[in-house]
Amino acid sequence: MSTFVSAVFSERGAILALLAFAVWFRLRPHSSAARRWLIVIAIAYVVASMYAVPTIVARVVLERGFRPVTAADVRQARTAIVILGGGAETVHGWDDASLAAPTADAMERVLEAARVYQLIHPEWVISSGGRLTRRQRPDGVIMRDELLRLGVPEVRILLEAESQNTRDEAVLVEAMLRSIHAEQVVLVTSSVHMRRALAAFRAVNIDAVPAIARNPTASAPLVDWIVPYGLGRSRAVAHELLGIVYYTARGWCRF
């Protein structure tokens, strides 16, 4: 599902759609259906590329009810912050040396986890996230390194680096939380991801306090909201909406 959504809501998807219409026009040069569908697909990609459109959908469907966490939201107890992986970019040199950095999605989560750490001073911070290919560094490792740079003590950080998706993270982190006898969990992830993440953790009997990360493009100039460059935001929103449907069908969510 993730691969399909990424393909559709990308430049590659748009190019493949145009290629398909080129073949259609070549085979049926006078087809009125081809012209109609070309217009529909072109309009759909333009609309999906306007940052305002997926942002409004996300606020109505995915982000409603969430707000920045405060100290008053967290009770006095043995607490663990859990930060969920948001992706990473790994680059390899000629000698196979590599450098890895978090994506913007992951960086916003790291910033929020560091802020919440300074706010409540929990016993643990669990940095969670595996890798999709052997040549990548695990998300959890990369985010842990960034947390260290932001002043979170290494002795407070626990690592989960085997998960492949949100469901895996919930299952693996639940076992870690039991082993350390945590009494409270503060869950850090992106605002569009929080609803599905909370539901996945509730399905393994973890009722976490949500701590949404600030969207890095939230303060973008007004003109950027209508210029068609926001296909990535549409991809993220579509991924979450379809993910909720899929997780619910599999029994991996509890709302």
Describe what this molecule looks like in 3D.
This protein is of the alpha/beta class and 255 residues long. It has 2 domains: 48 residues, no CATH class; 151 residues, HUPs (Rossmann fold), CATH 3.40.50. It is built from 9 helices and 7 strands; from the N terminus they run ααααβββαβαβαβαβα. The strands form 2 sheets. It has a 5-stranded parallel sheet with strand order 5-4-1-6-7. Strands 2-3 form a two-stranded antiparallel ribbon. Helix 4 packs parallel to helix 9. The chain is elongated, with a radius of gyration of 20 Å. The two termini are 21 Å apart.
Keywords summarizing the entry:
elongated, alpha/beta, 255 residues, single chain, 7 strands
Summarize this, please?
The chain is elongated and about 70 Å long. It has 2 domains: 2-49, no CATH class; 69-219, HUPs (Rossmann fold), CATH 3.40.50.620.
> How confident is the prediction overall: mean pLDDT?
90
Structural class: alpha/beta
Distance between the termini: 21 Å
* Order of the strands making up the biggest sheet: 5-4-1-6-7
Shape: elongated
Helix and strand run: HHHHEEEHEHEHEHEH
What fraction, in percent, of the residue positions are helical? 40-55%
Report strand %: 5-15%
Q: Using the 3D structure, state the CATH architecture of the largest domain.
A: 3-Layer(aba) Sandwich
The CATH superfamily name of the largest domain is HUPs
Q: Do you know the CATH topology of the largest domain?
A: Rossmann fold
The beta-strand count equals: 7
What can be said about the biggest beta sheet? 5 strands, parallel
- CATH structural class of the largest domain: Alpha Beta
Radius of gyration: 20 Å
Outline the low-pLDDT stretches: none
Q: What count of domains describes the coordinates?
A: 2
User: How many DSSP helices?
Assistant: 9
